[in-house]
Amino acid sequence: MKQTTELGHSTLKVNRIGLGCMGMSEFYGSFDEEESIKTLHKAIELGVNFFDTADMYGWGANERLLGKAFKGKWDKVVLATKFAVMRGPNGEWLGLNGQPEYIQKACEQSLSNLGTETIDLYFMHRQAPNVEIEVIVGAMAELVKQGKVKCIGLSEVNAETLRRAHAVHPISALQSEYSLWSREPEEELFEVCKELGITFVSYSPLGRGFLTGAIKSRADFEAGDFRLNNPRFTDEAIQANIKFVEVIDQIANDKGVTKAQVALAWILSQNDEITAIPGTRKIHRLEENLGAFQVELTKIDLEVIQQSMPLETIGNRY
Asked: CA–CA separation, 169 vs 190, rounded Å?
């Protein structure tokens, strides 16, 4: 299985299994900075070079954590960060902003947080409803001209918006949720990405941990875990969606691998350019995820998964 790919419209080569860093600062219960830094360093040691963060994760804390971990190691890292979701000084949610002046300031703040001079891949996290995509991408293109950003990406947009954006400036990557229980991008985004040479980045490829079989009830979450407010993680949804895990479990048992490895191998088998950014704070999970490169899913395996998976997921993504 191909382990690296070239990021669309760039010379940057990235791992097809990168590392999502969101949970190192917020959202998924308790976290430990020292443990996270050890995991980040281990990732580099294991050859991972693609790391994903955003200015809103820990409202700046996640970028600062990565800046600390990657000091003196930037030559080994391709870093993606994002703007648009505004947070207040105490983490309060302040909505979306796509105004050019804001984008310029957000980028400069991210560079300061990270302690670096250039962001490899800068994503619009979500589109502000009151700003046209052409205006947003125009402002992002300006950052490329200034040398503050190498490549630009979009997150969670539809095919038409992606085409309009790409007409203003080459889009290197599209990041959307994609996994065995979130397959909406297959409907038209994959086709557009292929046509326009855009790398698809799958976030939450393990269904926020659900597809690993680790979550059997709400009791498995720590207090404050954002999944407790997620429609897919009500008791009823967990019980109904367990069918997804059962299909993966059967294949994992047959191959002597883990469910996480099957779920990731399935994503990578969709095409040679797709990438995934499973998040973890722990070294043993990082190593387990990278083990997906060694899992070969046969045509029969893929057919079994296709035919056995439930047709719908219970509960919205957000």
From this structure: 19
